[in-house]
Amino acid sequence: MKYLKTILVLVLAIPQILSPVWASLFKGEDSFFEAWSPEQTYTSDYCIELKKDPKEDFVILNFTDVQIEKWDAQGELGRAATQTIYKLIKETNPDLITVTGDNGWCTSAYLKLIKDIDRFGIPWAPVMGNHDGSCCISEFWCAYKLYEAKNCIFKFGPKGMGYGNYAINITENGKVIHTVVMMDSHDGDEFINADQQAWYRWVLEGVAKKEGRTVESSVFFHIPVPEFATAYAQAYDKQKNCFVGDYAATSFGVNHEEVCYSNATSPFFGLCKELGTKNIICGHDHVNCSSILYQGIRLTYGLHTGPGGYWEEEMSG
């Protein structure tokens, strides 16, 4: 009976699995990316808009590194991940859900994660991790499944920058109060490239020009910048197991592994400082959960979600 159920699940999943393949064949992958150049004029409708209730806080809930493996998607680990996701959504009642990469290790796990989050009717914004696509049909397949989900606001973004570079303006009474930028940090041998950095500048300077002031911003991507390691080395005394100096009043969390940043050098942190970015939120390192205010920017690890990949119970939410 269990064997028959498995076959039935696979048969029912075939249209979902093949839809990106058909889209790629009949439309071409390039058709899903937007035309963009630094010379074009920024308009306010370029960014996705989410409205904040003036009487309420705007709540963002982040999931990261769910990455349930193929045979676990419908098993105990898959159910545990689902229960964690449901519990956190119900407890926090977020206005926006972000997912900072490594979303699933296979097609069935990817489809399950999308269904688990999308069913709540809450806007959600994912990015790609270094493992997305490696165990699925392709990275385009992953991006397309996110793109077609009803409540997912994922956009492919400009061509040549990976999959999923897009921006969200949070507005209150018609004014932009915060810009959230989602970016593809690629894999360990490539990081946020020069074109992405030009686009990031274009978006935030465009918002500032439209609003007549610098608007605070946060950026979400998967692999941390090297400054995560520099900040932790300065802020945390491993022998005393605590933050020290001025960091003690502004930082929290702990790291249980070395910061694994990209091999590629990038001036992106400096660009974030220049443009007034207040938060950089990443995933990637499953047993790190530090949040450190460093040179005016809060560097925060998303808490690993569920029992996928390697994990520690006290470091998983």
Shape: globular
Q: Helix coverage percent of residues?
A: 25-40%
Overall mean pLDDT stands at 91
Q: Which structural category fits the helices and strands? A: alpha/beta
Strand order of the largest sheet: 1-5-6-7-10-12-11
**What is the domain total for the residues?**
1
Number of continuous helical runs: 7
Assess the beta-strand content as a share of residues.
15-25%
CATH architecture: 4-Layer Sandwich
Question: How does this model look, in words?
Answer:
32% of the residues lie in helices and 17% in strands. It has 317 residues and is α/β, with parallel strands linked by helices. It has one domain (2-315): 4-Layer Sandwich (Purple Acid Phosphatase, chain A, domain 2), CATH 3.60.21. The longest helix is centred in the first third of the chain and has 26 residues, at 2-27.
Task: Describe the protein's topology.
Elements: H1 2-27, E1 48-51, E2 60-63, H2 76-92, E3 96-100, H3 107-118, E4 124-127, H4 139-148, E5 166-172, E6 175-182, H5 194-211, E7 217-220, H6 227-235, E8 236-237, E9 242-243, H7 268-275, E10 277-282, E11 291-294, E12 297-301
Parallel strand pairs: 1-5, 2-3, 3-4, 6-7, 7-10, 10-12
Antiparallel strand pairs: 5-6, 8-9, 11-12
Helix pairs in contact: 1-4, 2-3
